[in-house]
Design goal:
The protein is of the alpha/beta class and 321 residues long. It contains 12 helices and 12 strands. Helices cover 45% and strands 16% of the residues. Bound molecules: 2-amino-3-ketobutyric acid. The site of 2-amino-3-ketobutyric acid has 12 residues, from loops.
Length: 321
Amino acid sequence: MVLFLCSERKSMAEKILMIGSNGQIGTVLSKELRKKYGGDNVICSDIREPIKSADPFLIIDVLDKAKLQSIIHDHSITQIYHLAALLSAKGEQNPELTWKINMQGLLNVLDLSVQENVKKVFFPSSIAIYGPTTPKINTPQYASFQPTTIYGISKIAGEMWCEYYYKRYKLDVRSIRYPGVIGWQSLPEGGTTDYAVEIFHAALKSGHYDCFLAEHTALPMIYMDDAIRATLELMEANAESITVRTSYNLVGMSFTPGEIYSVIKNKIPNFTIQYKPDFRQKIAESWTESIDDSYARKDWGWKPNYDLDKMCEDMIAHLKQ
Ligand code: AKB
């Protein structure tokens, strides 16, 4: 009877919980979800209050399982977007804490989703799962993945847990391996691909950028608009069309710091750059340069809209405003 009421209630309206909504992707994705499902139906949450308030908002530490359970239960949550994680560069400064937040946090979400009858879960994976044994060009969906960072290790393990929960408990978990995400709306924090956002702010503010990666280091990237659209398209796809239950390869473009610098310089002629690679260079070198995302294209119709030129134009136009 209780189960019946529960599933009946959940078929009436979506109630979404986003965990880690203050981050680079969460800030933008939560707004899009609110447009789609209605403001009151998307509960944002993080361990700190956001800079700009976004009601309804709750303080949640994903490691506090009891509190998380009562929130999922009391709000009759039907979908969870679990975005809370420490990224590649910051993760290396505290591997134990990174493992705890990234891994235990995900396990709490998966476990409670089964217990509380949550219909769908989104888990962001990353290009950080790739490593020195992974083919660097056109990286296939299935290959050898031996990541070198604790962030990458937590993401590949997380992917396996998602597939396990899908197979064992029929939990509808969906996931994307995000490349570096570039957007004007929010700032990334603690990642290796952060340079590709910082460079725009520096170009417009001071006209100079000290780049922490070397000039010729190519990495896969995606513009925020494409990343958000991909996430929503994946979450709305028919469950039968999803053939990958670990995480989908996905890419918008690939470029080096030298290449993005010259596109920006075309638009801001006095812009200068100096390459000062630090510990993040080694992380970037362990990742791949370009990605084969044909599974995402075939299964749910993925197609990026932005290449390097179009992205730079849009970024500069928005940041100038
Ligand atoms: C990072 O650089 O750590 C992230 C990522 C690629 O997941 N942006």
